[in-house]
Amino acid sequence: MFEAAIVLLYGLVTAAAIAVTMLEGWANRDGLTLHRLAGLIACLLWPLTLVLFILHGCVLRLLTRLSRSAA
């Protein structure tokens, strides 16, 4: 259940970012340029960097606890 909620939240954030990127291109009457395509790909990938930073912090905290308990 928790995993489904995380995937849903990720999908909603990604969909909102893609919608804003597409609306920006529509408002500027640009169409699908190389920069817009790069922006759409970034919309899919940026939440992954947030997840990586959170996991990195969790791993560091766990390693710090383990090193203190071993000493």
Characterise this structure:
This protein has 71 residues and is mainly α. 90% of the residues lie in helices and 0% in strands. It contains two helices and no strands. It has helices at 2-28, 34-70. α1 (2-28) runs antiparallel to α2 (34-70). The protein is elongated and about 65 Å long. The termini are far apart. 0% of the residues are buried.
Helix count equals 2
The low-confidence parts are: none
Main sheet? Answer: none
User: What structural class do the secondary elements suggest?
Assistant: mainly alpha
What is the general shape?
elongated
Q: What share of the residues does DSSP label as strand, in percent?
A: under 5%
Radius of gyration: 18 Å
* First-last Cα distance: 38 Å
Mean pLDDT: 84
Helix fraction bin: over 70%
Number of strands: 0
Order of helices and strands: HH
Entry summary:
The chain is an all-alpha fold. It contains two helices and no strands. The longest helix is centred in the last third of the chain and has 37 residues.
Give the secondary structure arrangement, pairings included.
Blueprint: H1 2-28, H2 34-70
Notable traits:
71 residues; mainly alpha; 2 helices
